[in-house]
Amino acid sequence: MVTVTAMRIEPLTFPAPGGGALVSPPSRGGSAVRPGRPGGSGRPGQDGRPTPGRPGPSAPAGLSLLDSLAARTADLSHLADVLIDCVQGGASVGWVKAPTKEAATAWWSAFLADPEHRTWVGRDDSGRIVATASLALTSKDNGVHRAEVVKLLVHRQARGHRFAPGLMATIERFARTEGLSLLTLDTETGSLAESLYRRWGWTEVGAVPGFARVAGGALVSTTIFYKQLGAR
Ligand SMILES: CC(C)(COP(=O)(O)OP(=O)(O)OC[C@H]1O[C@@H](n2cnc3c(N)ncnc32)[C@H](O)[C@@H]1OP(=O)(O)O)[C@@H](O)C(=O)NCCC(=O)NCCS
């Protein structure tokens, strides 16, 4: 049962006691971050090795290692539930058939550990993650100005509460703050998401036919979009 009286959207971090984030710390606070620079976000350099990152957020006072790990386990479990629910609902987001809970949890764990990924979540009134979206940055030297929006997912029980527009606005704000000027994404042609991106000011590039297989075996198109953020 999902109750949402006040939508809560936040970056997903798993603070460890004594400092150092366990996974995926979105840098906050405004300075442009580039891979390979000291004090950067920890994105890997061109050789694929992580660069020194700024320290992650410290654990709030009183948060023990066990609390941290319990929160991480709960968040991973809820993220897995959101992913499974969306695939079961027919979303074409990487899986033909919904993954098992174990596989979905392992997938999120690996995804969040990738230093090029930044993830935001929407929580219901109980603190449970019911929505998520991520940015995939790139360490390619010629592409540090761009990122791809991936895995915009809202649990079916949490739809209609404006999590999706809230997450997308948060991501755009983050991208501008980080000095990114270009966002890209792709989504199943003819889906609700495709019509939303158009409404939200994304520019359609075109469709790639036969891009992804869906349940039942058919191949469906994906539509590619971009949004130029420009200077503000
Ligand atoms: C697409 C998706 C992210 C929308 O999430 P959401 O939080 O429920 O979105 P909201 O309810 O806040 O609605 C956003 C807009 O969509 C409209 N909308 C929502 N459901 C709709 C529906 N079934 N039919 C028509 N419009 C709909 C809302 O009216 C709202 O319009 P507005 O901004 O003009 O007011 C969600 O349906 C989802 O997770 N789908 C499966 C995963 C997916 O396809 N992700 C995209 C991959 S790229």
Verbal overview:
The protein is of the alpha+beta class and 232 residues long. The chain has 4 helices and 7 strands, in the order βααβββαβαββ. It has helices at residues 65-88, 101-113, 163-177, 192-199; strands at residues 8-11, 117-123, 129-137, 146-154, 182-188, 203-213, 219-228. A 7-stranded mixed beta sheet has the order 1-2-3-4-5-7-6, sandwiched between helices. A hairpin with a 5-residue loop joins strand 2 and strand 3. The longest helix is centred in the first third of the chain and has 24 residues, at 65-88. Coenzyme A binds at residues 86, 91, 93, 152-154, 159-160, 162-165, 187, 191-193, 196, 199. Coenzyme A (COA) binds at residues 86, 91, 93, 152-154, 159-160, 162-165, 187, 191-193, 196, 199.
